């Protein structure tokens, strides 16, 4: 049934599907780890129980999101060897070490302190537990650092030499590869997007509970903190996005041409198109609605600055304009809406109505999942806009795929779709279930199983047992009665 399909297209769809699922979880956990560190730090500084309650409320959600992010990320790594083996062979000498550094630094750091963060609050001192929380937050940032370095190098490849067999070999300086021209802009833009994503999730949850009970002090606190983040970070993100766009204009001009819908060149100033239907076959933007010369002002800071269009790019090097054009506009629209909600919250705070204005709470609730859609659209803009290259200007996507038959790729794609929606759908449902419960005084936080971890030998260290008696005694001699069988 899959014989008539294109194996390359199926491989691209499979990677797009899995990375889209994966991207949601790190975009949330990066910001949430930092939020947890802030909550615990405020609790230690002020001693107020409300911060500890919110910490324990959100740490349960973080644990699930973090676990799903790890699992979904592992699946993507396997695809480099199955569907994209040529890419792995040719680019592996450059990107392989960077991905290994991510495991050796971020993953080990997170794994080493995550257990202490989740279950160690009553086992270690307050300061040591706070240090563990900070290490997990730092680990999520370091993970983003290395992964974005890899992706940025694929967008703006530098610092390499071509081997005799066509491989990309590291040059004299690893710093040139790691800190490639687009990396600083991409890192700032993505991390800020993660913080905004988390802020609007927290704000949406707070708004949900305020709509049901305005007197809930925990909901008030989380809503207030989220709105501060929205009001401060959303404008900064817009500035960072503009700088990232100017960097993209310098290094990947056809991507910006597709983002702007500029099929033709404009020698006397290019319009900013608000709406249009890209028509790649006819090389024009149908039903275009634009603001004259505004694109030139934004991209080159001058009304009459000339802007080149896709008519200067060979047809076989042009990205698919429709996806890039509309993904970019959706991302921008969400960013402006985020800033509007932030400004609205500042006005409400100034009027003393932050917890009273129901329409602000409804707007925040609607905007709760908006960050996920924004980061997905940003990823589509970045990755689809790079086509037809997987290593920009040097290795085409069509030349990077494994020599697989379409049925093999289609079968694994179908399996991924079924398993992902079942497993991660259940995880997301449980997260929403936890969010539906209002935060309250005396939150319990993450819990271990009643009997602790399962051990292969069936022996729990620190416990001794008389083989003729079901009663156990710990090493201090304290008696423990046997538990009832379920």
UniProtKB/TrEMBL annotation:
<feature type="transmembrane region" description="Helical">
    <location>
        <begin position="323"/>
        <end position="347"/>
    </location>
</feature>
<keyword id="KW-0479">Metal-binding</keyword>
<feature type="transmembrane region" description="Helical">
    <location>
        <begin position="404"/>
        <end position="432"/>
    </location>
</feature>
<feature type="transmembrane region" description="Helical">
    <location>
        <begin position="15"/>
        <end position="36"/>
    </location>
</feature>
<feature type="transmembrane region" description="Helical">
    <location>
        <begin position="192"/>
        <end position="211"/>
    </location>
</feature>
<keyword id="KW-0249">Electron transport</keyword>
<dbReference type="InterPro" id="IPR002585">
    <property type="entry name" value="Cyt-d_ubiquinol_oxidase_su_1"/>
</dbReference>
<keyword id="KW-1003">Cell membrane</keyword>
<dbReference type="GO" id="GO:0020037">
    <property type="term" value="F:heme binding"/>
</dbReference>
<dbReference type="GO" id="GO:0070069">
    <property type="term" value="C:cytochrome complex"/>
</dbReference>
<feature type="transmembrane region" description="Helical">
    <location>
        <begin position="359"/>
        <end position="381"/>
    </location>
</feature>
<keyword id="KW-0812">Transmembrane</keyword>
<keyword id="KW-0472">Membrane</keyword>
<dbReference type="GO" id="GO:0019646">
    <property type="term" value="P:aerobic electron transport chain"/>
</dbReference>
<dbReference type="GO" id="GO:0009055">
    <property type="term" value="F:electron transfer activity"/>
</dbReference>
<protein>
    <submittedName>
        <fullName>Cytochrome ubiquinol oxidase subunit I</fullName>
    </submittedName>
</protein>
<dbReference type="GO" id="GO:0046872">
    <property type="term" value="F:metal ion binding"/>
</dbReference>
<feature type="transmembrane region" description="Helical">
    <location>
        <begin position="57"/>
        <end position="78"/>
    </location>
</feature>
<feature type="region of interest" description="Disordered">
    <location>
        <begin position="443"/>
        <end position="486"/>
    </location>
</feature>
<dbReference type="GO" id="GO:0005886">
    <property type="term" value="C:plasma membrane"/>
</dbReference>
<keyword id="KW-0408">Iron</keyword>
<keyword id="KW-1133">Transmembrane helix</keyword>
<feature type="compositionally biased region" description="Basic and acidic residues">
    <location>
        <begin position="476"/>
        <end position="486"/>
    </location>
</feature>
<keyword id="KW-0813">Transport</keyword>
<comment type="similarity">
    <text>Belongs to the cytochrome ubiquinol oxidase subunit 1 family.</text>
</comment>
<keyword id="KW-0349">Heme</keyword>
<dbReference type="Pfam" id="PF01654">
    <property type="entry name" value="Cyt_bd_oxida_I"/>
</dbReference>
<feature type="transmembrane region" description="Helical">
    <location>
        <begin position="128"/>
        <end position="148"/>
    </location>
</feature>
<feature type="compositionally biased region" description="Polar residues">
    <location>
        <begin position="462"/>
        <end position="475"/>
    </location>
</feature>
<feature type="transmembrane region" description="Helical">
    <location>
        <begin position="223"/>
        <end position="240"/>
    </location>
</feature>
<dbReference type="GO" id="GO:0016682">
    <property type="term" value="F:oxidoreductase activity, acting on diphenols and related substances as donors, oxygen as acceptor"/>
</dbReference>
<feature type="transmembrane region" description="Helical">
    <location>
        <begin position="98"/>
        <end position="121"/>
    </location>
</feature>
């Amino acid at each position: 049934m899959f014989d008539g399909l294109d194996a390359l297209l199926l491989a691209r769809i499979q990677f797009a599907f899995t990375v889209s699922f994966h991207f949601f979880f790190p975009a949330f956990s990066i910001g949430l780890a930092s939020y947890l560190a802030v909550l615990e730090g405020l609790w230690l500084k002020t001693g107020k129980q409300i911060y500890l309650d919110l910490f324990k409320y959100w740490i349960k959600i973080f644990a699930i999101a973090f676990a799903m992010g790890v699992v979904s990320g592992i699946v993507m790594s396997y695809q480099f060897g199955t569907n994209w083996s040529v890419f792995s062979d040719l680019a592996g000498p450059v990107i392989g070490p960077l991905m290994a550094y991510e495991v050796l630094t971020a993953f080990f750091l997170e794994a080493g302190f995550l257990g202490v963060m989740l279950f160690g609050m009553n086992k270690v001192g307050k300061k040591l537990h706070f240090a563990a929380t900070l290490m997990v937050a730092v680990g999520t940032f370091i993970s983003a650092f290395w992964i974005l370095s890899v992706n940025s190098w694929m967008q703006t490849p530098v610092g390499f030499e071509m081997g005799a067999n066509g491989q990309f070999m590291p040059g004299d300086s690893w710093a040139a590869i790691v800190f490639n021209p687009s990396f600083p802009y991409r890192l700032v833009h993505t991390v800020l997007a993660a913080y905004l994503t988390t802020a609007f999730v927290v704000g949406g949850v707070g708004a949900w509970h305020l709509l049901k009970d305005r007197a809930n002090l925990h909901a008030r606190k989380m809503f207030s903190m989220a709105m501060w983040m929205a009001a401060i970070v959303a404008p900064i993100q817009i500035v960072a996005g503009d700088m990232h766009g100017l960097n993209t204009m310098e290094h990947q001009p056809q991507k910006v041409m597709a983002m702007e819908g500029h099929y033709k060149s404009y020698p006397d100033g290019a319009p900013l198109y608000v709406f249009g239907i890209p028509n790649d076959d006819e090389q024009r933007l149908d039903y275009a609605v634009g603001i004259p010369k505004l694109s030139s002002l934004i991209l080159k800071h001058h009304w009459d600055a000339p802007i080149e269009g896709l008519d200067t790019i060979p047809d076989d090097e042009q990205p698919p304009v429709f996806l890039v054009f509309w993904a970019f506009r959706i991302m921008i629209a969400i960013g402006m809406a985020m800033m509007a909600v932030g400004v609205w919250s500042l006005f409400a705070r100034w009027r003393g109505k932050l917890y009273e204005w129901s329409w602000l709470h409804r707007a925040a609730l609607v905007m709760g999942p908006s960050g996920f859609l924004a980061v997905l659209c940003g990823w589509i803009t970045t990755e689809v806009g790079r086509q037809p290259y997987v290593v920009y200007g040097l290795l085409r996507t069509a030349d990077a795929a494994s020599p697989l038959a379409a049925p093999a790729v289609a079968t694994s794609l179908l399996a991924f779709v079924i398993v992902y929606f079942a497993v991660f759908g259940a995880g997301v449902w449980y997260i929403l279930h936890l969010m539906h419960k209002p935060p309250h005084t005396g939150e319990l936080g993450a819990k271990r199983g009643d009997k602790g971890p399962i051990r292969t030998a069936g022996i729990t260290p620190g416990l001794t047992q008389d083989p003729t008696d079901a009663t156990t005694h710990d090493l201090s001699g304290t008696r423990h009665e046997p538990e009832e069988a379920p």
